[in-house]
Design a protein that fits this description.
- With 137 residues, this protein is mostly helical.
- It has two domains: 63 residues, Multidrug-efflux Transporter Regulator, Chain: A, Domain 2 (Orthogonal Bundle), CATH 1.10.1660.10; 58 residues.
- The chain is built from six helices and two strands; from the N terminus they run βααβαααα.
- A two-stranded antiparallel sheet has the order 1-2.
- Helix 1 packs across helix 3.
- The longest helix has 38 residues.
- The mean pLDDT is 88.
Amino acid sequence: MRTFTISRLAQQAGVSVETIRFYQRRGLLAQPEKPSGGIRRYGEADVARVQFIKAAQRIGFTLGEIVQLLQWDDGAHCPEARAIAARRLDDVRRRLADLQRIETALVQLVGQCEARRGTVRCPLIAALRPPLAPAAG
């Protein structure tokens, strides 16, 4: 069985040493015992675990959700894992809808800017500026 130092583990998993330490502090990755006068050693399973964590993060799972998924890696918790993924999917769909609304607004603002070239006030900046409060008097 191959073993790795923390720096080699980080390299194998494609992360930084600080990421490994962060995962350890958060309980995502166990810190191996340090032999007397020696260096902690990590195994292939640790590399796979870090790669799993990074893959789950890339598709939007939070660290809390990843902790749960790692705890349920026995094959008996598929419904629970599915529920977490379904919530994440709903969140992604909401964010996509928000991004589409943002895109529509920006398309309109860019179009207004192109149509009003040479004017003193930029329609994009004017649209983003809050309205002035009426003067007290």
